[in-house]
Each structure stands twice: as structure tokens, then as C-alpha cells.
Amino acid sequence: MSQWITVLGATGSIGSSTLDVIRRHPTRYRVYALTGFSRIDQLVSIAVEFSPKFIVVPTLAAANKAQALLASSQHECEILVGADALVDVASAKDVDMVMASIVGAAGLLPTLAAAKAGKRVLLANKEALVMAGPLFMQAIRDNGAELLPIDSEHNAIFQSLPANYRGDFSQHGIEKILLTASGGPFRNKTKAELSQVTPAQAVAHPNWSMGAKISVDSATLMNKGLELIEACFLFNCRADQVQVVVHPQSVIHSMVQYRDGSVIAELGQPDMRTPIAYGMAWPERIDAGVKHLDLFDIARLDFTEPDHETFPCLNLAKDAFERGGICPAVLNAANEIAVAAFLAEQISFLAIPELIQKVMSLCPEKLVHCLDDILAADKWAREQANSILAEFKNNKQLAGQE
Ligand code: NAD
Ligand code: MG
After folding, report:
1. Any residues with CB less than 8 A from the CB of 11 and at least 6 apart, and which?
2. Which of 27, 133, 214, 346 has the fewest C-beta atoms under 10 angstroms from its C-beta?
3. Strand partners, 100
């Protein structure tokens, strides 16, 4: 029997890779809904190919455009509008699994809705987990949902942990997680060199092809910071039990180190279709269309420590996790504003950590009791970040160029 999947963020990089896996298994998976925020033409063309029951667009104008395009292709599917519709298609009764691949905080509510509806949640949207880790994990447990990490590192860790792992390192003799990082496009660059880098250079990742926001996060190492927090929530460990290892080839996707000296790793091509197919078919394995790894081709693997001085975002994230409460949500929101400003060429690359650090220094110690606490923290942090951004602009102060 086919399994029904909703792909949130179907027009993005992870969305496209997911659809490619589905394309290879047309009887095993059927598409329930596809959602997109921009690129309505692309959304309609994948709707024509995959025949979902619903597509979700952000505005009435986008719905009209989609309607006209669908009519000209003589294809029918229901068009839903707005953020509530994302929640509906993530939690609908007929849906078996949800690919959570909207970028940023916008993905939180539908991803949480999928967890609360007891779906298999294929979690690419790390920002949702960073913002709402404890609430999200509780929703998974309380509703019998299945959480399959899609982020390649966390997928590798999941594969390297014992199959019966339930969140207790000591029970299984686990010492630490070795979280690998490619180092991004600016590995080995000095601060002086970083002050001049452009958005185009930042999004040109050496190993992975990804959306613009995560590519900039990779370049600042905030991506690794968000992933460190993601690992702590997913696998129930402390930040000091996760060691970041820079591994420029991105062949090892992460490792688990055990008490007896064993280190278990998952290796593969830097191609997201592998973790996506793993999550969709788990515990089975299916063809993902990925070229097999040729170790003779690779020949060598390198490992170094991260450069915390030049790339402060990793430690900003670690601090936010250790402070707890609303801090990870505040960090995430400040980062989203900073990255968008950098991509819009309003601030320099080095101003990204500066802006985040300023917001974090204002962040009060507050516990999270419910979702509203997180949404309020997210809103507060965006306001703070925007006003600091306005100061940066007024002073014409682009960090690193003073
Ligand atoms: P992307 O920018 O290519 O795609 C983002 C998708 O989200 C698009 O479909 C877009 O239309 C949609 N979207 C954007 N803003 C929205 C909003 N406000 N409301 C509703 N939908 C919105 O991003 P991506 O690279 O595919 O990354 C998606 C998520 O997966 C991110 O959280 C990222 O951190 C994570 N991730 C990506 C990769 C990768 O290789 N690309 C790897 C690991 C994790
Ligand atoms: Mg990753």
C-alpha cells in the first residue's frame, strides 16, 4: 500500500531532493500536498508531475497565479492559502509522513503540528528544533510520532547509535558525538579577508548544494552551532558531549564514540537524497539515485579543530544552548535577521556574529512553559535585531570595515 507524504517547502533544495526520491518509487509513495512560498511556476510544474491533492501558497495573488497556470496545463488540484493551511496539510488524517523542509522559524508551526498528529516527521528544518527543542521532543513522545533526522550529520548519528537508543548515553557506553563540519567556503580565511566577502561567495558551498540561508550559516559556522543544539535536543545530551570536527571532504557525515574505544561513522556522498531516502523508508533501505562512494577516488580524509576566534557563531550557539530557556529561540531569530541583511547587502559578513552577539547580550533568562513563550521570544529578538541593524546602518558601521 502506498504511503502519503506532505512535502513542506517543496520548491526548495531539500524539497526537490525529496521529490527526486519519490519519483524513483511512484507506487511506494504518493504526494498528499506540496507547499511553496515563492516560485509559483515551479510549484505548479511539480504539482502537474506528482498530482498532489493540495498545493499551499502564501497569498491570494499566488493562488490566482497558480490557478491560471494549472488551468492552462489542464490539471486539477485544490489550492489552499496561508500559514493555517500549512498546519492542515501537515496534520491531515490521511498523511503518513511529512517532510519538514521549510527554511527558518516559518517551519515551526506545521512541523509541530505533524508531531502532534503522530506522523513520521522527516526533520530537515533544524530551526524549528532549535527554537522549541523540549516542546517538540515532548510532542513527538506524547503523540507516538516518529522523528527521523534528515540533516546529514544527525542522520549519520542516528545510524551510528544503537537501534534501541532512547536518550541515555551511559546505558549504551556512549562517550560523545563527533559532529563533522566541512568548514564552509571560507575555511582558512583570516578576519581581514572575511571583511570583504560577498553573498555570492558565501552561498557557493564547496561540497553541498543548498538554499541561500543555510549556505550562509555554513559559511559563518552558525550552521554547526544550530546543529550542535539540534544534536543535544535530538539525542538528549549536553553540549560538552558533542565535539565539532572540521572534515573538509564531507565524506564522514558524523560519528559516535563509545567507551570501549570504538568509533562508528556513516560515510557517503554529499547528497541529501541519502538521508532523505533513509528517513522515508526506515527501517528499510531504498534506492536514492546516489552515486556509490569510491574510497580510492577520495584517497584521504582530513580532520582539524574549528577556528573559534575567526568564526564566533559556533560558541554563540553553544552558549545559547547552555543558558537554555528562550535563548536558543532568540539566537535563531537574531541569526535569521542577520543572514537576511547580509544577503541583501545591508551588512558585512563579519557583522553577522556581531549583530547576534548584541541581541544575545540583551536576552533575559526566561524559561519556556508553552509555545507562546517561544513565539514571544522570537518576536522580541527580531525587534531587537532590527533596531540594532538600523543603528549599524545609521552609523554606516559595517563590522570589519571600521
Ligand atoms: P531553500 O531555501 O532551498 O527552500 C526553502 C523552502 O521553504 C522553499 O520551498 C520556500 O518556498 C519555503 N519557504 C521559505 N519561506 C517560507 C515561509 N515564510 N513560509 C512557508 N514556506 C517558506 O532551503 P533548503 O536548503 O531546502 O533548506 C530547508 C531546510 O532544511 C532548512 O531549515 C535547512 O536548514 C534544512 N537543511 C537543508 C539542507 C540542504 O542540503 N539544503 C541540509 C540540512 C538541513
Ligand atoms: Mg547538516
Report:
1. 36, 37, 38, 39, 42, 43, 46
2. 27
3. 8, 123
Identify the DSSP state of 369. -
CA Rg value for the chain: 21
The helix-helix angle for 327-343 and 371-394 (nearest 10°) equals 40
Residue 53 is part of a domain; what is its CATH number? 3.40.50.720
Domain coverage including residue 162: 157-270+285-298
Number of the ligand 1 atom closest to the C-alpha atom of 86: 20
At residue 62, the 3 state secondary structure works out as helix
Q: Return the ligand 1 atom nearest residue 214 CA.
A: 34
Distance 158 CA to ligand 2 centre (A): 13
Tell whether 137 and 197 lie within a shared domain: no
280 is a domain residue: no
pTM, whole model, 2 decimals?
A: 0.97
Residue stretches of the chain with pLDDT short of 50: 399-400, 402
- State the ligand closest to the CA atom of 181: 2
State in Å: Cα 148 to ligand 2 middle.
Answer: 14
- Give the Å distance between the CA of 34 and the centre of ligand 1: 13
* Closest to 287 in 3D by CA, of 278, 299, 296: 278
Cβ neighbours around 198 below 10 Å, total: 12
80 and 27 within one domain:
yes
Number of domains in the chain: 3
pLDDT tens for each residue of 245-263: 999 999 999 999 999 999 9
Ligand nearest to the CA of 125: 1
Q: How far apart are CA 382 and CA 369, in angstroms?
A: 20
**Cα(153) to centroid of ligand 2, in Å?**
5
For residue 116, tell me if it sits in a domain: yes
- Is the domain of 13 the same as that of 75? yes
Around ligand 1, the residues with Cβ closer than 6 Å are: 9-15, 36-38, 101-103, 106, 124-127, 151, 208, 210-211, 214, 272
For residue 378, the tally of other CB atoms under 10 A from its CB is 22
Q: What is the pLDDT of residue 400?
A: 46
